[in-house]
């Protein structure tokens, strides 16, 4: 039978905006020794802002932004939303032909009869696009049209207000190792690791590589501790499902995340994870 205290713990967690899907997850929360975060939308706000538009062609900055906005129109990735926010005009859907989103890469779409690529360096490489621009110290969306490199849009995202507190509190709660998995470039990942005081990062990962990296971490700690993963469900739902304990940021409204997770943080605050652990530990005291 399930000890009554478990229900008390679940109820108490829900008052704090933390949804626990079952009593055994309270147990898992209590025993989490390694906490791994996704970056975009989890530690950062997931609201990128366009910083700079660089064109290396006959296209103006406005034209480059226009192609990017049309390409990103059908994507719900945070990067797509930011580019569309920066584009002040209506989208004429008649101009959009096919549209293909490549996870962890970007978009391939037909705009005005031309093939438009909008995404990261991996997308350019996969399509044999040569780009001479040095932009490896920022997060950028490269744009190529009909096989020719046209320039990039640099974007930046801000850390959530409680990102640092989230890491500090986990450390205080005795978590042994805290890290991050991301599809973003290494420089951005390293900066966040240093700023937040995390132990490790793995960057430039495709969605299936995130699962593989998590499995490696789980192997490393086998018999020594449970691995908790926190994500927002965009390109990381399989990782949420694979972790010993998967925690989803539920407020952004990703059904995939809520489905795959064991615990849902309704307020999207990463600092709630240490709170969930605290409640789990208290619950245990009440039961036994
Ligand atoms: P994270 O791990 O930070 O949550 P993702 O796995 O969602 O990031 O995406 C990884 C990278 O793939 C992004 O940093 C970006 O370079 C590229 N990318 C993904 N989707 C898009 C898109 N719709 N438009 C442009 N680039 C994209
Ligand atoms: Mg993500």
How much of the sequence is in beta strands?
Answer: 25-35%
Bound ligands: adenosine-5'-diphosphate, magnesium ion
Query: Structural class, from helix and strand content?
Result: alpha/beta
| Tally of individual domains | 2
Family: Belongs to the cation transport ATPase (P-type) (TC 3.A.3) family. Type IB subfamily.
Subcellular location: Cell membrane; Membrane
Protein name: Cd(2+)-exporting ATPase
Describe the structure.
38% of the residues lie in helices and 26% in strands. A seven-stranded mixed β-sheet has the order 1-13-12-11-2-9-10, sandwiched between helices. Strands 3-8-7-6-5-4 form a six-stranded antiparallel β-sheet. A hairpin with a 2-residue loop joins strand 7 and strand 8. The protein is elongated. It has two domains: 4-45 and 159-287, HAD superfamily/HAD-like (Rossmann fold, 3-Layer(aba) Sandwich), CATH 3.40.50; 49-156, Calcium-transporting ATPase, cytoplasmic domain N (3-Layer(aba) Sandwich), CATH 3.40.1110. It starts with a helix and ends with a helix. It is an alpha/beta fold. The chain contains eleven helices and 13 strands. The site of magnesium ion has 7 residues, from loops. Adenosine-5'-diphosphate binds at residues 38-40, 72, 75, 77, 79-80, 104-107, 118-120, 139, 141, 182-184, 234-235. It is found in: Cell membrane; Membrane.
């Amino acid at each position: 039978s399930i000890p009554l205290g478990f229900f008390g713990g679940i109820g108490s967690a829900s008052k704090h905006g933390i949804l626990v899907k079952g009593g055994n997850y309270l147990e898992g929360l209590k025993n989490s020794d390694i906490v791994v975060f996704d970056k975009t939308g989890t530690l950062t706000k997931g609201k990128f802002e366009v910083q700079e538009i660089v064109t290396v062609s006959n296209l103006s900055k406005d034209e480059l932004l226009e192609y990017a906005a049309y390409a990103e129109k059908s994507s719900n990735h945070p990067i797509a939303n930011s580019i569309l926010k920066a584009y002040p005009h209506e989208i004429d859907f008649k101009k959009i032909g096919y549209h293909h989103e490549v996870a962890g890469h970007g978009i391939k779409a037909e705009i005005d009869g031309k093939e438009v690529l909008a995404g990261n360096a991996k997308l350019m490489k996969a399509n044999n696009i040569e780009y001479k621009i040095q932009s490896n110290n920022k997060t950028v969306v490269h744009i190529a049209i009909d096989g020719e490199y046209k320039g990039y849009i640099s974007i930046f995202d801000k850390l959530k207000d409680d990102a640092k507190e989230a890491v500090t509190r986990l450390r205080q709660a005795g978590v042994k190792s805290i890290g991050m998995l991301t599809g973003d470039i290494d420089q951005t990942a390293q900066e966040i690791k240093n700023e937040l005081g995390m132990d490790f990062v793995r960057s430039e990962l495709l969605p299936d590589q995130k699962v593989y990296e998590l499995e490696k971490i789980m192997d490393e700690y086998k018999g020594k501790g449970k691995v908790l993963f926190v994500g927002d469900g965009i390109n990381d739902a399989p990782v949420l499902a694979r972790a010993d304990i998967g925690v989803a940021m539920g407020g952004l409204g990703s059904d995939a995340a809520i489905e795959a997770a064991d615990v849902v943080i309704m307020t999207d605050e990463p600092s709630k994870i240490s709170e969930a652990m605290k409640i789990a530990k208290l619950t245990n005291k009440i039961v036994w």
